[in-house]
Amino acid sequence: MTYLEASRRQAEELRSRENVRILALETSCDETAAAVIEDGRKILSNVVFSQIDLHELYGGVVPEIASRAHMEACDRVVDEALAQAGMTLEAADALAVTYGPGLVGALLTGVNCMKGLAFAAEKLLIPVNHIEGHVSANYLTHPELEPPFLCLVVSGGHSHLVEVADYGVYHLMGQTGDDAAGEAFDKAARVLGLPYPGGPRIDALAEEGDPRFLTLPHPKVEGRYDFSFSGIKTAFLNAVHGMEQRGEKLPKADLAASFRFAVCDQLAEKTERLLRDRIAEGKKPLLALAGGVSANRELRRRMAGLCESLGVQLYLPRLDLCTDNGATIGAAAYYQLQRGNIAGLELNAVPALRFV
Ligand code: KG4
Ligand code: ZN
To answer: Are 94 and 25 in contact (CB under 8 A)?
Structure first.
């Protein structure tokens, strides 16, 4: 029997079983992370080794450094995740790995590590889309949440409004035509001289600032639920450079607050439009947030206020599950397993893997 045939048999058997434990690995960017998840909902362990220290010096992620650091950390992080779950590799029912989207070298490190383990331990391997992992943070945080629901996915590389029609089934409602929200936060932070990653730093600074200090443009976009952040970013950069040229001291907290407001305002506006359209159709939508930017305090407050006024149930992922980690990959993997989605040993990294 080939590896894939054996995996298909295992998958068939696991689909009717309870207490399915999946060991998942995530290496798509600058976090080497592993976790053990039971039945897609329960975290038995979640170990995140962040490489931020290694990249901070360069103001962003250096792909070659990331790949090397993943290579050095993979085995340790996997062993630690198993140890914290109180189990051996033998006791894992299946393995899972992020195979895209992300940095090709970083992804390849994780994919090869898990392919090696899967072959040696004769375990099936589940390929996971990183963005689907972000959405699944909500399954770990909210045991009662089930599709269908609407989800605003905002990370360093993605800004999408989707409908989660079923587990692993997504319909695109809106997306950014240029920068992702997280990317815009990181660029704005850089011009303020804040270290990488800038999103959380802008968020913290903005708490002390006045969002009315700087009025940023309201972008025009094609689709009814689409976003655009490049105009806001350019106007912000020009305003900061202008102040620097005039020798003015930068009111960083006010600038951060103004930028954060403009980004969140747009995310909230389009989400509100989608929710209102659904309500007008007689539906009762649920809304979840996902991705690194869903940790943003202003975004959480705005969405909470919006959902309260519309009578919509809001699901926010646990803060430590917003950014990259292995637990969300293990949760997404469980539902892929239910759909029979397993990998052969030819599995490769797909850096531009699509989500919808
Ligand atoms: O989802 P994530 O961990 O990685 C990707 O898949 O891209 O997102 C990282 C992004 C970075 O751009 C980071 O600056 C941003 O999420 N981020 C935030 C906050 N926390 C993380 N942006 C704004 N406010 C935050 N609190
Ligand atoms: Zn991510």
So the answer is: no
